[in-house]
Amino acid sequence: MTDTPKDQASPDHTKLNPGDQAEPGTPGAGENICPECKGTGRIGVTPCPICGGTGTIIEGIGGG
């Protein structure tokens, strides 16, 4: 078995962006607008480093 670098997606895992707390589809997590770029996917003329240019992040959803 070979190791996959953290910044590359392995065949069975989605590449996570720095702002993601979980993989898409993880129970108890959901998609939200990136707080850094406010959903635009860009900071100035460059892709947002938090969401990877998608405008969204995956984060845990609150419970009680």
Short synopsis of the structure:
The protein is mainly beta and 64 residues long.
Helices and strands, with pairings:
Layout: E1 29-33, E2 42-43, E3 46-47, E4 56-60
Antiparallel strand pairs: 1-4, 2-3
Describe this structure in words.
This protein has strands at 29-33, 42-43, 46-47, 56-60. It has a two-stranded antiparallel ribbon. Strands 2-3 form a two-stranded antiparallel sheet. The protein contains no helices and four strands. By secondary structure, it is an all-beta fold. It is globular, with a radius of gyration of 13 Å. Residues 6-10 have low confidence and may be disordered. It has a domain at 29-60. It comes from Microvirga mediterraneensis.
Sheet/helix structural class: mainly beta
- What gross morphology would you assign? globular
Q: Beta-strand level of the residues, as a percent range?
A: 15-25%
- Rg calc: 13 Å
| Unreliably modeled segments | 6-10
Helix content class: under 10%
Mean pLDDT, all residues: 84
Task: Please give the largest β-sheet.
Answer: 2 strands, antiparallel
The first-to-last residue Cα distance is 41 Å
How do the strands of the widest beta sheet line up side by side?
Answer: 1-4
**Number of helices, where a helix is a run of at least 4 consecutive DSSP H or I residues:** 0
- What are the secondary-structure elements, in order, as H or E? EEEE
Count the strands? 4
Organism: Microvirga mediterraneensis
Biased composition (Basic and acidic residues): 1-15
Region (Disordered): 1-34
Protein name: Molecular chaperone DnaJ
